């Protein structure tokens, strides 16, 4: 048995009062120098950055206390808003667990992260069929990019769970709890329990 000699990967963090789940896209306005530096570094390296839920503190100003689990965000598009600020469209990819966080001189938090495993290819179980139906109705009603997904995606337990976590009017703490679950069926169980 050999010891794991791979060093933890470091990832710049962009803590927010929101939870980004894998496959979801969000828009950001970037104006603080520490985050402009982070975005520039990501552009140069072709890497993403981490989005974590803020547990204590504000998005602007002093470094915050953020959740240990987050999602890597990759930049899909960027531009300038009417106010001249940098605007980004980012998409959630891999989940991570931040093991240690240090704060750079400019206030940017950088975490040593362990990547969570990829979602397994699992079929929606019969007891979660209601959730796949609910997602289909939501997508039919609101449209958007996921409405164009192949119908077979509604059989994918992980995809159904992430889309419901993204689209349902959940509290951030509930979304964070879903993000931290590794098993897609446990995620669907939790979603069923959260439905009114």
In CATH, the homologous superfamily of the largest domain goes by the name LON domain-like
Mean pLDDT: 92
Strand content: 25-35%
Q: Flag low-confidence runs.
A: 1-5
Rg, rounded, reads: 18 Å
- The total tally of domains equals 2
Q: Might you state the CATH topology name of the largest domain?
A: Archaeosine Trna-guanine Transglycosylase, Chain: A, domain 4
- The shape is globular
Distance between the termini: 49 Å
Total of DSSP H or I helical runs spanning 4+ residues: 5
Could you state the order of secondary-structure elements as H and E? EEHEEEEHHHH
* Helix/strand class: alpha+beta
The description of the largest β-sheet is: 6 strands, antiparallel
The total beta strand count reads: 6
Fraction of helical residues: 25-40%
CATH classification, class level of the largest domain: Mainly Beta
Model description:
This is LON peptidase substrate-binding domain-containing protein. The chain is an alpha+beta fold and 196 residues long. The protein has 2 domains: 9-115, Archaeosine Trna-guanine Transglycosylase, Chain: A, domain 4; 126-194, Methane Monooxygenase Hydroxylase, Chain G, domain 1. It is built from 5 helices and 6 strands. It has helices at 33-45, 129-142, 157-167, 172-179, 184-194, and strands at residues 9-12, 25-30, 49-56, 65-80, 86-103, 109-115. Strands 1, 2, 3, 4, 5 and 6 form a 6-stranded antiparallel sheet that branches. β4 (65-80) and β5 form a beta hairpin. The radius of gyration is 18 Å and the shape is globular. Mean pLDDT is 92; it is low at 1-5.
């Amino acid at each position: 048995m050999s010891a794991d000699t791979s060093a933890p990967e470091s990832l710049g963090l962009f803590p927010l009062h929101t939870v980004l789940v894998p496959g979801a896209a969000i828009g950001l306005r970037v104006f603080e120098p520490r985050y402009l530096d982070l975005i520039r570094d990501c552009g140069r390296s072709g890497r993403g950055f981490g989005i974590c839920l803020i547990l204590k503190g504000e998005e602007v100003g002093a470094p915050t206390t953020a959740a240990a689990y987050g999602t890597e965000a990759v930049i899909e598009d960027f531009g300038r808003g009417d106010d001249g600020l940098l605007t980004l469209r980012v998409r959630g990819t891999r989940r991570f667990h931040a093991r240690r966080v240090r704060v750079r001189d400019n206030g940017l938090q950088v975490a040593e992260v362990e990547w969570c495993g990829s979602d397994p290819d699992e079929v929606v179980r019969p007891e979660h069929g209601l959730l796949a139906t609910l997602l289909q109705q939501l997508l039919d009603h609101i449209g958007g990019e996921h409405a164009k997904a192949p119908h077979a995606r509604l059989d994918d337990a992980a995809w159904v769970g992430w889309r419901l976590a993204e689209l349902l009017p959940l509290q951030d703490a509930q979304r964070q709890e879903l993000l931290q679950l590794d098993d897609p069926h446990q995620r669907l169980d939790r979603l069923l329990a959260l439905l009114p």
